[in-house]
Specification:
The protein has 204 residues and is an all-alpha fold. It has 10 helices and no strands.
Length: 204
């Protein structure tokens, strides 16, 4: 989960510069996934991806810090955070996150879902990507904590906000890094169920 500036039904970028950057980012990801399908993840190099996308390797790394990030980074967290900020202040943090996630899913096109299915399969099957995914989840805790603190009118590094964010990302990790079910729709259902379980106090 990371910055989602692809030109798609999810998160339309604004401004000429942003649209050009989004187009380049989308092209890199599109060609990377195609090459992974054709050659396999391990056999595909950053240089090959860059050449297919008609950019330099240096440009690739400006958009994606590692080859793993081209699989992991998408716009879902950005769109979800925007939806989180739009939730009524009367909602508790977990209820607000559930509602924000549902709003994000509602914006996803079939192409978004197909790409998510493919990247999820890669994440679960390629050890390097799975390991990098943990770093992404750790980063997401910080981002969500700051958003929750803002909703509550607290400092960005508020202890309670970070704890709640850690708990939410923890239950999301528990379902997204588990063996796949029926695809993204099933995954989002599992995420909502996990958040509902957390909201109920994690009864066992």
């Amino acid at each position: 989960m990371a910055d989602m500036t692809e030109v798609s039904a999810v998160g339309q970028p604004t401004g000429l510069r942003e649209r050009k950057k989004a187009k380049t980012r989308a092209a890199i990801r599109q060609h990377a996934l195609r090459l992974f399908r054709e050659r396999g993840y391990s056999a595909t190099t950053v240089e090959q991806i860059a050449a297919a996308a008609e950019v330099s390797p240096a440009t690739f790394f400006r958009y994606f810090p590692t080859k793993e990030d081209v699989v992991l980074q998408d716009d879902m967290d950005l769109v979800t955070l925007e939806a989180l900020e739009a939730q009524p202040a009367s909602l508790g943090p977990i209820a607000a996150m559930r509602s924000a996630t549902a709003a994000m899913v509602a914006q996803m096109s079939q192409a978004d879902l197909d790409r998510l299915r493919e990247t999820t399969e890669l994440t679960l099957s390629v050890p390097e990507i799975r390991a990098r995914a943990v770093d992404e989840f750790t980063r997401t805790i910080e981002v969500v904590a700051a958003a929750l603190a803002k909703r509550a009118g607290r400092d960005p590094d508020d202890f309670a906000a970070r704890n709640v964010a850690g708990a939410m990302i923890g239950v999301i990790m528990a379902v997204t890094l588990a063996p796949p079910g029926d695809g993204p729709a099933d995954m989002f259902g599992s995420i909502d169920a996990a958040l509902a379980h957390l909201e109920a106090g994690l009864p066992l």
